[in-house]
Amino acid sequence: MLSAYIYVDIRDRDIGSYVADAKKAVAEQVTFPSGYYVTWSGQFEYMERAIEKMKIVILVTLLSIFLLLYLNFRRITETLIVMLSVPFALVGGVWLMWWLGYNLSVAVGFIALAGVAAETGVIMLIYLDHAWQDVMDECHLANRTPTVADLYAAVMEGAVERVRPKMMTVVAIMAGLLPIMWGTGTGSEVMSRIAAPMVGGMISSTVLTLAVIPAIYALVKQWRLARGLEQ
User: Fold this and answer.
1) pLDDT-derived band of residue 105, with 50, 70 and 90 as boundaries?
2) Residue 136's domain spans which residues?
3) How does DSSP classify residue 4?
4) Considering the chain, what is the average pLDDT of its residues?
5) I need a labelling partner for 27 at 20 to 30 A (CA). Which of 17, 47, 73, 128 fits?
6) In the chain, what is the straight-line distance between the N-terminal and C-terminal CA atoms, in Å?
7) How far apart are CA 126 and CA 133, in angstroms?
8) Are 89 and 113 in contact (CB under 8 A)?
9) Would you say residue 160 lies in a domain?
């Protein structure tokens, strides 16, 4: 089979976006005779294979996180609340990747981000549970049933207690990742794309985890309280 090779060196942009534009240009401007076709090989082919494997890795990672959380909390509701931290973090990661012009095919940083986001969600839930348990213990000592007002007070207390450790975690992670993201040395093009989603994800995760998870926790506990499931 006769074949011809066209070698292309790419600068100042990633392979995935270049090949996407090149495929579109070839499809619009080139008409192949019968029996002729074009394939994209080289580093792009290796990247495509890596992406297919990465999809499996991401799925296994999320399932592993969910399973470990469920084994710890023994409840689907608490597990799902913590899992909400993952999309909260992904929002910031995707946004920063878009702002910097990085291709979303670089998914290694998102895998690391998923683990960190789940960890912060677990800590938030632990603080909320401890605050709510303390309030219920006080109500039992006073021989009265916990009310919605007690629940809201516990949620406020638990969420406020989480602000300082959350900010300390974010500052420590950002201090380590920002030099990597803005570095210019050997291998910086790869490392910056791994660090970028984690930086953006920590920003959005900080805001959304501190605001949304306590609200969802309060709604779930209020529903259980109304049905006499929280004693």
Assistant:
1) low
2) 53-226
3) -
4) 80
5) 47
6) 76
7) 10
8) yes
9) yes
Q: What is the pLDDT of residue 229?
A: 66
> What total number of domains does the chain contain?
1
| Cβ atoms within 10 Å of 231's Cβ, excluding its own | 10
* pLDDT classification of 188: cutoffs 50, 70, 90: low
In angstroms, the CA 78 to CA 116 distance is: 17
Please indicate, yes or no, if residue 106 is contained in any of the structural domains. yes
Identify whether 19 is part of a domain: no
Kindly state the tokens that stand for 100. Answer: 């910097």
Instruction: State pLDDT tens for residues 146-172.
Output: 888 888 888 888 888 777 877 887 888
Q: Token pair for residue 191?
A: 């490392």
Determine contact, residues 151/226, Cβ cutoff 8 Å: no
Amino acid 208 reads L
Amino acid occupying residue 144: R
Give me the amino acid identity at 99. Answer: W
Does any domain span residue 48? no
Query: For residue 179, which of 188, 169, 187 has the smallest C-alpha distance?
Result: 188
Q: On the CB side of 125, how many CA atoms lie within 13 Å of its CA? A: 23
Q: What is the DSSP letter of 12?
A: S
Q: Which residue has the tokens 């409840």?
A: 75
The stretches of the chain forming alpha helices (DSSP H) are: 15-29, 43-73, 76-83, 85-100, 108-141, 148-181, 188-226
Q: What is the pTM of this model?
A: 0.70
Q: Specify the CATH number for the domain of residue 138.
A: 1.20.1640.10
